[in-house]
């Protein structure tokens, strides 16, 4: 996402226009909006000096933005961590920069309760609160359907915002209550299809999808067990996370 970074926005534009690259580039970014402007040219070079002598690299801008000295090191360490984890075959799953409103989370909880009443006659099986809805939508599923590639198409969302109007949470296993480790985010149509299908059919027909979702729900189980030092989830156990 480049809505808060003018330089990244320029690079993204050139990649798209000059090279036809629209997605698939791994980047390291900060979502903090710049608070400083480029330094005046007279603070870069003294009178009589050639400003080009102060370029960091050829064809790079002369004026710079003041940067806290520790930030480049922090970015470098983050990049090194990402690469080392990838080389070790343990890809990182960093926090999502997506920005959702509280109203969006509240609507997801309302939709879940409505869905439970429609399917089971009551919403007594809903064992999550608004904080767990935030975790599920933002952290676990990143505002995407579990069946969708995690790519925001150009023009699909604005800035760091993301539309969740077509998404709903539904039980992964209909035999268990709607706990934090048994809810999957899908489009309405996908959720209706899922609710009419049993897990054994999904396991047989779509083994990769079944495994991917199971691992994510196992992560939710692990996160909440560790967070409270005990397992608070019904019919669950704090088993170690499986290796992806």
Task: Provide a descriptive summary of the structure in words.
It is a single chain. Helix 3 (102-120) crosses helix 4 and helix 6 (199-205) packs across helix 7 (207-228). It contains seven helices and two strands. The radius of gyration is 23 Å and the shape is elongated. The protein has helices at 6-19, 71-87, 102-120, 130-140, 188-195, 199-205, 207-228; strands at residues 167-171, 183-187. The protein has two domains: 6-87, no CATH class; 102-228, no CATH class. 18% of the residues are buried. It is 40% helix and 4% strand. It is mainly alpha-helical. The protein has a two-stranded antiparallel sheet with strand order 1-2.
Chain-wise SSE layout:
Blueprint: H1 6-19, H2 71-87, H3 102-120, H4 130-140, E1 167-171, E2 183-187, H5 188-195, H6 199-205, H7 207-228
Antiparallel strand pairs: 1-2
Helix pairs in contact: 3-4, 6-7
Which key terms come to mind for this protein?
mainly alpha; two-stranded antiparallel ribbon; 2 domains
Mean pLDDT: 80
Oligomer: single chain
Note the gap between the termini.
27 Å
Show unreliable segments. 226-244
The total beta strand count reads 2
Our estimate of the beta-strand percent is: under 5%
Radius of gyration over all CA atoms, rounded: 23 Å
Largest sheet: 2 strands, antiparallel
């Amino acid at each position: 996402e480049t809505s808060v970074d003018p330089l990244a926005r320029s690079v993204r534009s050139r990649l798209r226009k000059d090279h036809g690259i629209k997605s698939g580039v791994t980047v390291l970014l900060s979502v903090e909006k710049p608070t400083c402007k480029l330094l005046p040219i007279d603070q870069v070079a003294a009178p009589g000096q050639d400003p080009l002598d102060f370029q960091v690299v050829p064809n790079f801008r002369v004026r710079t933005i003041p940067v806290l000295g520790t930030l480049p090191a922090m970015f470098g360490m983050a990049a090194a961590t990402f690469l080392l984890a990838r080389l070790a075959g343990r890809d990182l799953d960093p926090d999502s920069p997506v920005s959702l409103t509280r109203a969006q989370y509240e609507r997801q909880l309302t939709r879940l309760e409505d869905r439970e009443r429609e399917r089971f006659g009551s919403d007594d099986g809903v064992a999550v609160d608004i904080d767990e809805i935030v975790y599920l939508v933002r952290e676990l599923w990143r505002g995407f359907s579990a069946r969708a590639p995690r790519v925001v198409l150009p023009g699909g969302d604005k800035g760091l915002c993301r539309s969740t109007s077509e998404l709903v949470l539904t039980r992964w296993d209909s035999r268990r209550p709607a706990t934090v480790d048994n809810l999957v985010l899908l489009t309405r149509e996908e959720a209706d299809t899922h609710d009419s299908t049993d897990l054994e059919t999904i396991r047989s027909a779509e083994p990769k999808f079944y495994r991917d979702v199971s691992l994510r729900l196992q992560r939710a189980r692990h996160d909440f067990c560790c967070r409270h030092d005990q397992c608070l989830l019904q019919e669950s156990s704090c088993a170690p996370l499986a290796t992806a």
